[in-house]
Write a structure and sequence with these properties.
Layout: H1 11-14, E1 17-18, E2 25-26, E3 41-47, E4 58-63, H2 86-97, H3 109-128, H4 143-154, H5 160-194
Antiparallel strand pairs: 1-2, 3-4
Helix pairs in contact: 2-3, 4-5
C-alpha cells in the first residue's frame, strides 16, 4: 500500500514532482509498505523545502516498530576442557575402529555416517573430558582475585565467611580495574611523549 496516499494532506504536502515549467505538480513518488506494517506508519509526507537538487521532492516516512524480545535458547552446547585429552583420543579411536561404515551407494549414507560420528564424539567427550566453566576471564583480573572468586563460589551462601569473601572480591576487583586503567593511561602518556 502507498503510505503517503493513506491520509488526506494539504496539496503542498502531497506533491512529489514539479514540472520543468514550475506550474504543474503531481504525486508520482510513493512510499510502499506491506499491509501488515501500515498500522506502524506514524507519518509519511513530502518535504518540498529539502534541497536535493532534483525535480522530485523528498518523501519520508516515520515508522513505530514494536519488536518482541526473543527468548534465549534453554540448552547451551557445553564446551569441554581439552588440556588433557589423552583418554578422549583413545576412547574416540577405539569407538571409530568398531564403527560400521555404510556403503557409499546406500541412500543417506553420508547423513548416517555424520550422525554416528557426532554421537561417538559427544559420548566420548561426556565420558572422559571435564566441562569448562562459563566464566569470562578478563585480562585485567589478577590470578589472586580469580582464586578468591573460586573460594567464594565453593563457600555456603549466606554464611559469614561468604559475606567476607564477597566484600573482599569486590575490593580486589575495584583495585584490579583501577590498576588496569592506570596502566592504560601510562601507556597512552608514553606513546604521546614518543610521538
Amino acid at each position: 500500500m502507498a503510505a503517503n496516499a493513506l491520509v488526506k494532506r494539504h496539496p503542498r504536502r502531497r506533491y512529489t514532482w514539479i514540472a520543468p515549467d514550475g506550474d504543474h505538480r503531481n504525486q508520482i513518488d510513493y512510499m510502499l509498505a506491506q499491509r501488515r506494517w501500515i498500522s506502524s506508519v506514524c507519518k509519511c509526507r513530502s518535504y518540498p523545502g529539502a534541497d536535493i537538487d532534483s525535480d522530485h521532492v523528498l518523501v519520508a516516512m516515520k515508522l513505530r516498530l514494536k519488536l518482541q524480545r526473543l527468548k534465549k535458547r534453554a540448552c547451551r552446547v557445553p564446551s569441554y576442557d581439552f588440556s588433557d585429552a589423552k583418554e578422549y583420543e583413545v576412547e574416540v579411536s577405539n569407538r571409530f575402529q568398531s564403527l560400521e561404515i555404510p556403503e557409499v551407494s546406500a541412500p543417506n549414507a553420508a547423513d548416517r555416517m555424520w550422525d554416528s560420528m557426532k554421537a561417538i564424539m559427544l559420548e566420548s567427550a561426556n565420558k572422559t573430558l571435564s566441562k569448562k566453566r562459563g566464566t569470562a576471564k578478563r585480562e585485567w583480573i589478577t590470578p589472586e582475585t580469580f582464586a578468591l572468586i573460586e573460594e567464594k563460589r565453593n563457600c555456603v551462601r549466606g554464611s559469614i565467611r561468604y559475606r567476607e569473601l564477597k566484600r573482599e572480591v569486590r575490593r580486589m576487583l575495584r583495585h584490579d580495574r583501577n590498576a588496569h586503567l592506570e596502566s592504560i593511561c601510562k601507556q597512552v602518556e608514553e606513546l604521546e611523549r614518543t610521538a
